[in-house]
Amino acid sequence: MEIPGNRPVYMDYLFMTLGTCLMALAINSIYDPITMVTGGFTGIAIILKALVDIPLWLTNIILNVPVFLIGIKVKGFRFIARTLYSTVLLSFWLYVLPRINILTDDYILAAIFGGVISGVGIGLVFLARATTGGTDMVAAFIQHYLKHYTIAQILQVIDAAIVLAGAYIFGLNKALYAIISIVVVSQVTDGILEGLKFSKLAYIITDYHDEVAKEIMTSLGRGATGLNATGMYSSTEKKVLLCVVSKKEIVQVKEIVTRIDSRAFVIVSDAREVLGEGFIEFKLN
């Protein structure tokens, strides 16, 4: 059985290539010209470049070499192959892309648009089931020995330390803008990862469950599941319809329910990932 939503392998490498290019663009043309440190090994690279004039791409490689050697020893080469590809590509793009200050020292625009560009790039790399090494892998190694902490918690501490170092060297003002950019990166990355698989889940409580279910199946071509329930106030048996639809279709579902039973009770929530027919399907080799 393949991974749900399986893509050809070349698509994953295309995602990694485009994603690392966008990340390097944000670093070279937005973060580095105004010395905005947003964490990660690239944040360390920006600090070192300002202090001792070491190129960003070279610092990224030097810092990642011991990390990957440890990763190969602990996890094996196959486990980090894609991450190695992404890391080398990021350094390649940092080397070939020109350093142009495209936002002319406008820090709020740099924080927002740098975060958007970088977030899309990171999201594409994550979609390919890879990372760009750096502090992500360092956090994973530390968590191997400090199991009572999550990787996310450790990563936050590491990146926070890098941002604080940037604040000490370049000033608190730039560090505060960097925090805005980090938030934007997080939101955009989550949107890339979850938005492609985002659906709506509706619970429908109505006395006309048969009519509502039939209309949903006929008009939308979506299935509905009847769940047995008991009204605790009235002690009467009820049928709760469970229905998963796309974001656009949820409007039609509410219209159908309202038209058939204006007194129905509808609960709508987000479904982050839906596996099965009509959504992300399993495929047999």
From TrEMBL:
It is found in: Cell membrane. Gene3D superfamilies: 3.30.70.120. The chain crosses the membrane at residues 12-31, 43-72, 79-96, 108-128, 149-169. This is YitT family protein. Residues 222-276 form the DUF2179 domain. Its main location: membrane. GO terms for cellular component: plasma membrane. InterPro entries: DUF2179, N-reg_PII/ATP_PRibTrfase_C, UPF0750_membrane, YitT. It is a multi-pass membrane protein. Keywords: Cell membrane, Membrane, Transmembrane, Transmembrane helix. The keyword Kinase does not apply. It comes from Candidatus Galacturonatibacter soehngenii. The keyword Transmembrane applies.
